[in-house]
Design goal:
By secondary structure, this protein is α/β, with parallel strands linked by helices. The chain has one domain: Rossmann fold (3-Layer(aba) Sandwich), CATH 3.40.50. Helices cover about 30% and strands about 20% of the residues. It contains eight helices and eleven strands. The strands form two sheets. It has a nine-stranded mixed beta sheet with strand order 5-4-6-7-3-8-9-10-11, with helices on both faces. A two-stranded antiparallel ribbon has the order 1-2. Strand 9 and strand 10 form a beta hairpin. The chain is globular.
């Protein structure tokens, strides 16, 4: 077991060199929670990792993103993978031939596949069933675990909003799924607005209790912070604060926010 850990065989490299050097990568069979306030780059980081993982290894990355339609996720993946401004993909400034060539380059540049689950109201059961059917699964991403719903309320979703699963229950179930499948499960979550009243607005582990999460369940807990969200004179650095990392180091890795495209890259 120790030899396997030394060779990082129990980890999945994200493609972000500084983050991988600090953490060793995402834990196979482990749950990674990425928490931050809205607009800090949680979705951007998750999609950037999906893009980089599919480029560097064979296998399938599955993305659940109930906040965003399937086409919206695809467009953000394209702009991330090709470093194209999202406006150019949507405003017609790219000809049909240029858009087709961009898509061809995107798919030709990767060894693995990316599957976007189209479900608007995913349940823990549907996530598990969907993932179990993919034989070459290498990474599961759930973008905003707040939007995982109880299956017995989904039938009423047309009439009223279905009832979400409590966050702590979701983390236990997703941790069990990661262990069963032997792949990393990466989830994003919004941190409570209480931190906005602090002078130092960087999230920390104590903030998790306000959204119903317990730090004990997750194998890795990562917080994102962009100072230029609060101070326009700051640069575009994204602080990737590793607050918990089972059998690994903690600390801060520094990434870069690309304003034009709304995605994250390495420094």
């Amino acid at each position: 077991m120790l030899e396997q850990m030394r060779k990082n065989k129990d980890r999945l490299l994200t493609g972000f060199r500084e983050f991988d050097a600090l953490t060793g990568g995402l834990i196979k069979g482990g749950l990674t929670v990425v928490g931050a306030r809205p607009a800090m780059g949680k979705t951007a980081l998750a999609l950037s990792i999906a893009d980089l993982v599919s480029k560097q290894m064979e296998g399938t990355v599955v993305i659940f993103s109930p906040n965003m339609c399937e086409a919206g996720v695809a467009v953000r993946l394209l702009q991330t993978g090709l470093s194209i401004e999202v406006g150019r993909l949507l405003d017609g400034s790219l000809s049909a031939q240029e858009a087709a060539e961009a898509c061809r380059r995107f798919f030709a540049s990767r060894k693995g596949k990316i599957k976007i689950n189209p479900s608007t109201y995913p349940s823990l059961e549907s996530i598990e069933t969907y993932c179990q059917k993919i034989p070459d699964l290498c990474l599961v991403i759930v973008d905003n675990m707040k939007y995982i719903y109880k299956p017995d309320t989904l039938a009423e979703a047309v009439v009223q909003e279905p009832e979400p699963v409590p966050m702590d229950q979701s983390t236990y179930a997703l941790k069990a799924l990661a262990q069963e499948l032997g792949v990393p499960v990466l989830c994003t979550a919004n941190v409570h607005r209480r931190l906005e009243h602090r002078k130092n607005k960087r999230p920390h582990l104590r903030d998790l209790k306000w959204i119903g999460l317990t730090e004990e369940t997750a194998d890795q807990i990562i917080f994102l912070y962009r100072d230029n969200y609060y101070n326009w004179q700051s640069d575009n650095t994204v602080e990737c604060i590793v607050a918990k990392n089972t059998c690994g180091n903690t600390g801060t890795a520094f990434l870069r926010w690309i304003w034009a495209g709304g995605y994250i890259t390495g420094q």
